[in-house]
Design brief:
Structural class: mainly alpha
Strand order of the largest sheet: 1-2
Oligomer: single chain
Low-confidence stretches: none
Number of strands: 10
Shape: globular
Radius of gyration: 27 Å
Number of helices: 15
Largest sheet: 2 strands, antiparallel
Mean pLDDT: 88
């Protein structure tokens, strides 16, 4: 009856209704179906996913997983341009940081910790660097302060996990380096060093070699960059970089790509294969690439993609508006303005091929985009280009790689929204817009 409801909510309601009458159950279902006011599966899956990420850097922390994500953690977390202060997203960040510092330096007075934290402009790395030089001020350690609920500031959790386990991380990195030196020495003595067919690095030990299906040898970085560039160009086939006519196997792609990139690529590849099968009755979600065969008598398309989970109308392909008919949906002026701004934000985010008008967005790779029609354009300025001479690091030409793609996309979207607001006069009278679609991006 409520397929899109949060299962934990349904279980709780089922427990409440267990000893009640059938009429009570009917009342509950009628009210839920009429109002739609109940926690959804979408929010449940999002919360579960968020909690899994939080657990990765708190209770579920492991050295191997952390070092796989951050091979050089000292360099990553010591970057002076990286900020980890309290975020507007979580008002408990200050308390979370303070509790960590108190429990990490049990032999120092709290007032001294607070003073250094304030002097360091709430920069945790600087605070810990200074506190590490302090002598013990207490003969006995203070009692451990009970930790507050885990922060939702993921970057902050990563940093605190690094600082909390820094000694163990350094020890493991040192062991990794020693093992690598021994393996390389053994490879040299036995003539086992290999050469990458792309970058021509001649000192690859066997453990650093990755292969296409024909056995061509590459280093991890070359395959990773090549495949990510192809993904950014909208491709789902990944031929060998040595042009031998073979491709890379799925297990090889899984080993070289980041888990998130691989997962999305695999999902797109699977959906592409399903669409090519020309299955009768197959329909796709209007909001993602999920495809399935819905029941013929159902007016609703229910997306089962965990990152989407939207219900849409099969006739007009908009968000489900049951019990209203498509012709009965009317939008007030505020919705029209918000929709206009959202459309401009989408236009600013997406890129359109000047030759075939195909719309796309880059997930990774360089900024030289090659459309399936053969047209080449710059992802930064959207101008048609011929080759890599368009790019450079001189501050005049467009960069070949975008360091922070999420930030680049967010900036473009916000700029699109800003222009739309000026066109609508909202910049002069912000009260005209009830729901600002940029509120979660600023």
């Amino acid at each position: 009856m409520l397929p899109n409801a949060d299962p934990t909510y349904l279980q709780a309601e089922a427990d409440k209704l267990a000893n009640k009458t059938e009429n009570d159950l009917k009342t509950f279902l009628d009210n839920a179906l009429e109002t739609g006011d109940y926690p959804t599966m979408e929010s449940y899956l999002k919360n579960r996913k968020d909690n899994e990420v939080i657990d990765r850097y708190t209770d579920g922390f492991t050295l191997d997983a952390f070092l796989k994500e951050f091979p050089d953690p000292e360099k990553y977390f010591s970057d002076p341009n990286r900020t980890y202060g309290p975020s507007d997203e979580d008002v408990n960040d200050d308390e979370y940081i303070q509790t960590f510092l108190y429990n990490h330096y049990l032999y120092l007075r709290k007032k001294d910790i607070d003073r250094v934290f304030k002097m360091s402009s709430k920069n945790i790395i600087k605070t810990c660097t200074r506190l590490d030089t302090f002598r013990k001020a207490l003969s006995l350690p203070r009692k451990i302060s009970p930790p507050p609920p885990a922060s939702k500031n993921i970057e902050l959790l990563k940093l605190i996990a690094f600082l909390k386990h820094r000694k163990a991380i350094r020890k493991r990195v040192k062991q990794y380096d020693l093992n690598y030196r021994l393996l390389k020495e053994e490879a040299i003595n036995n003539g086992l060093l290999q050469t990458c067919a792309c970058c021509y690095d001649e000192e690859l030990i066997p453990e650093e070699c990755y292969f296409c299906k024909n056995g061509c040898i590459f280093c991890k970085d070359c395959i990773k960059k090549g495949v990510e560039t192809a993904i950014g160009d909208g491709k789902l086939d990944f031929p060998c970089l040595a042009d031998c006519g073979f491709e890379y196997s799925i297990p090889t792609l899984q080993m070289v790509l980041d888990s998130v990139v691989f997962s999305r690529m695999a999902q797109r590849k699977q959906m592409d294969e399903v669409k090519k099968a020309n299955i009768d009755g197959l329909e796709t979600c209007p909001f993602c690439e999920f495809a399935t065969i819905p029941p013929p008598d159902s007016k609703i398309f229910t997306c089962l993609n965990s990152e989407c989970m939207k219900e849409s109308c099969r006739e007009c392909r908009h968000v489900s508006h049951i019990p209203l008919r498509c012709s009965e949906i009317e939008y007030d002026e505020d919705v029209k303005m918000r929709t206009y701004i959202e459309n401009k934000m989408t236009e600013a985010l997406l890129r359109t091929c000047r030759k075939c008008n195909k719309v796309f967005i880059k997930a990774s790779g360089c900024n030289k985009m090659t459309c399936s029609c053969g047209a080449i354009m710059c992802y930064v300025c959207s101008l048609p280009i011929d080759d890599y001479r368009h790019f450079g690091d001189d501050g005049v030409r467009c960069p070949l790689y975008t360091t922070d793609l999420n930030k680049f996309h967010t900036t473009a979207v916000l700029e699109g929204a800003k222009k739309a607001k000026i066109e609508l006069g909202i910049d002069k009278d912000p009260s005209k817009l009830k729901n600002d679609p940029t509120r979660d991006l600023i």
